[in-house]
Amino acid sequence: MMTKAIHMKQYVTNPSIFNSIIPIARQFFSTSSAVSALESETGPVQKRFGSFIGVIQDKDLLKKAPNGELLVLYLIDNGAMDPDASLYNQLLKKCTEWKRLKEGKVVHEHFLRSRFRNYVVPNNTLINMYAKCESMDGARKVFDEMPERDMVSWTALITGYSQNEGAEEALVLFCEMVKFGFMPNQFTFGSVLKASGALDSGGTGRQVHGACVKFGYEENVYVGSALVDMYARCGLMDEAKIVFDKLSCKNEVSWNALIAGHARKSEGEIAVKLFSVMTRGGFQPTHFTFSSVYAACASIGALEPGKWVHVHMIKSGLELIAFIGNTLLDMYAKSGSIDDARKVFDRLVQKDVVSWNSMLTAYAQHGLGKETVECFEEMRRIGPEPNEVTFLCALTACSHAGLLDKGMHYFELMKKFKIEPNISHYVTIVDLLGRSGQLDRAEKFINEMPIQPNAAVWKALLGACRMHKNLELGVYAAECVFELDPYDSGPHILLSNIYASAGRRSDAAKVRKMMNEGGIKKEPACSWVEIENAVHMFVANDVAHPQREEIRNMWEKITDKIKEIGYVPDTSHVLWFTDQQEREERLQYHSERLALAFALLNSPPGSPIRIKKNIRVCGDCHTAFKFASKVVNREIILRDTNRFHHFHNGSCSCGDYW
């Protein structure tokens, strides 16, 4: 049974045309009886020019005639079919559905030669076809040339701009539409609110919200969901929640909009709680729901909640397609479970370039240079063609693993794939050269860059100078950073540390004074650990935690044990206390050490401990954690701003190259 078809009844006055279209008509009709019925008319037609009835199936609308033209238009041009407005409409809808812009333009040209060219409905379909095929110039031209427009005409063009990065044009059109007296509908408001969210313009969004109220659409679930999404995209989560709570009828879209908003703000705990309330309320999470929650968990490294949501998805029976699998993979990777990330990657139904890039990023974040290179080479053999993100992942991994020759090879390989390096690639190469100790070569590379180096490039060189204690070049790199980004505290701290390490305390003090006078504040270091779905945060010398005494006692016991097997505090990492004993005391209560002691007190023996830190881990804490992993016989996974460190049995996955 045909679900959708075009029925035609035509009178053919030329027998030769009628005979010639029979072979062509065979391409249209899927049943032999239809063709036989047509062929049986041939004899009588030659005598009485009879009639026939044919059926064109929806799937055959864009079939080609032997001369390459669209078959339907060929039949019209040869007098075998009378055109009508609905036929053009059907053809244009099929071009829209299949994103066939070339054929759509052919139908458009044919339509303009017809007597229906001023009909509103087919012109509206033309606007939509051009917009869906990402040709907004074509859509605008059709709109401007229409002698008569209706509300659908305006909405189609507004929607087109909204969906094709033309948010400002969409908002201007909306104002014109209202000015000309057209009443917007729910689809108009949905698109205008999407445009407001894309501009991150809360002020504009509030004005559109007022229009929604004025026209009586505030409680419409479609418009209400769009309002929630708009406020969420503008970062106005309180207002998004107010609109959400006022909705008398909620659906999956409104829930998704609210959850996604919190995910974008890295408010993982709130997103997970909302997901729980959503499912208890009987709403079925979609792929978009799961993707948002995974992203939220990834942002805070919340492994256990992420696993719980993953189990929920498995029970729901949703297929692990690339779209959701990529965010799930990222969640496991950013939560410190690289093995689970690989399992997700291997189980993906179909891997796209984002899937491969996500896996490469995961390996790079965990400092697994060898695995990153192997994955990259596997992608080149069996996967999609690498893009600029792929190469950035490979270069980052080479930098973290000290694979200088391999990294430079991949940088040159980008030319083979006709990929122009952007500033991020150049930053990574400077980092690669700098970490390898080739500071002069890194400086030469910067000076020969075909694009202007930004602050990030000089920061990479400055970090390398701190690592290799090159005072002269470090001062020069810092000066370049200060010119481009004078309010970032990081480079000031690095320069101060370089001076202090070289014994130039007065110069270090000058840098600190410059920071104070310029109102530049160092970000306070903090670490956090997740125990039984609760996140516990610590700062250095923390005295606020209810278990502070037990935590300090635990770390003191660990300190005694690791000193017995060779740990010696490196007080060069405490630059502002001249007394040796005071320096050691300051080292012992860094935030990550307190987090580790707390985890040892409150987690099952033998289980991995996952700690996150908001700045780079200091060298002495890194050494202490290596020894601690051996004496407590636990794997300790530390995620800082640069990468993951996996401490196990006295060693770290970074190989002390970080």
Keywords:
658 residues, 8 strands, two-stranded antiparallel ribbon, 34 helices, single chain, 6-stranded mixed beta sheet, elongated, alpha+beta
Basic shape: elongated
Task: Give the strand content.
Answer: 5-15%
| Total beta strands | 8
Number of helices: 34
Unreliable parts: 1-14, 29-54
Helical content (DSSP H or I, runs of 4+) = 55-70%
Q: Structural class, from secondary structure content?
A: alpha+beta
Gyration radius over CA: 33 Å
What can be said about the biggest beta sheet?
Answer: 6 strands, mixed
Could you describe the 3D structure shown?
- The chain is α+β, with helices and mostly antiparallel strands and 658 residues long.
- A hairpin with a 2-residue loop joins strand 3 (526-531) and strand 4 (534-539).
- The chain has a six-stranded mixed sheet.
- The chain has a domain at 526-652.
- Helix 7 runs antiparallel to helix 8 (136-145) and helix 7 (120-132) packs parallel to helix 9.
- Helices cover 63% and strands 6% of the residues.
- The chain is built from 34 helices and eight strands.
SSE order and pairing:
Blueprint: E1 5-11, H1 15-25, H2 32-40, H3 42-48, E2 51-57, H4 71-77, H5 85-97, H6 101-112, H7 120-132, H8 136-145, H9 151-163, H10 167-179, H11 186-198, H12 202-214, H13 221-233, H14 237-246, H15 252-264, H16 268-280, H17 287-300, H18 303-316, H19 322-334, H20 338-347, H21 353-365, H22 369-382, H23 388-401, H24 404-416, H25 423-435, H26 439-447, H27 455-468, H28 471-484, H29 489-501, H30 505-517, E3 526-531, E4 534-539, H31 548-564, H32 580-588, H33 591-602, E5 609-613, H34 619-631, E6 636-639, E7 644-648, E8 651-652
